[in-house]
Write a structure and sequence with these properties.
Length: about 150
């Protein structure tokens, strides 16, 4: 008898970020800091996580910044920046060493939620939402564009 154990860290992290997203949707669990002011959200993370997550204003593009929260993935604290598109919540988890570190966007569905993962500027990003896959892809592209030098496309 041969037993094969496969450690797919990427899938494990995807499962954990979806679980964190689902927990956040419970009443009273969405945000620790509730504001659309990126200059309030970003400094709120100081001392709570090892990274300063980018907090990007995308309201004009249809993605409203709602605030942020602290969560734990793999036992490590991670920043979560919360956005809304119409009635859909998007959690953007940001951390170091929270995935495979690839620059391309990895797309998957987990438990009925759409998940996008990519790395940029030494950070791992995980976007999770029940938003349509194309619209979540649009969100990821807008975040990615804003992270490029001079915000260029």
């Amino acid at each position: 008898m041969l037993t094969v154990f496969r450690n797919d860290r990427e899938q494990t992290v995807a499962d954990e970020v979806v679980s964190a997203h689902i927990r956040s949707l419970q009443p009273g669990h969405l945000m620790d800091v509730q504001t659309s002011d990126q200059h309030t959200v970003k400094p709120w993370f100081d001392g709570k996580v090892d990274v300063a997550p980018p907090v990007i204003e995308l309201t004009a593009e249809g993605f409203t910044l709602l605030g942020g929260c602290l969560d734990y993935i793999g036992g490590e604290p991670v920043a979560c920046v919360v956005y809304r598109r119409r009635k859909h919540i998007i959690n953007l988890f940001v951390a170091q060493r929270l995935g495979s570190g690839h620059a391309f966007v990895n797309a998957r569905a987990v438990q009925g939620y759409n998940v996008r993962h990519w790395s940029a500027q030494g950070l791992d990003f995980w976007a999770v939402s029940d938003l349509d896959p194309e619209e979540l892809g649009e969100f990821v592209e807008k975040i990615s564009a804003a992270l490029r030098p001079n915000g260029s496309s």
